[in-house]
Design brief:
The longest helix is centred in the middle third of the chain and has 26 residues. The radius of gyration is 14 Å and the shape is elongated. It is built from 3 helices and no strands. It has 82 residues and is mainly α. It has one domain.
Length: 82
Amino acid sequence: MGKHIFSALCTVVMMWMVVRASLHSGSTTALVSNIVYMTTGFVMFVELVTYHRWPKGMPKQVMQVVDYCGIFFTIAALKRIQ
């Protein structure tokens, strides 16, 4: 779980760096794509922390579905950047 918290914090730092670089490039498409990608990555790591801390039961099953959706959205955002 600690590595997921660390990854979420690293994602915030990377988001700041990537958004700053996108602003300097002047490309609105790059800016929006990078914000979407970094946001989905951050949400995915936060969701993983929540999932691993949650007790077993129905909410944990829902969190597993949300986890899969987060992975899908992160991959979809990455495809948009390419």
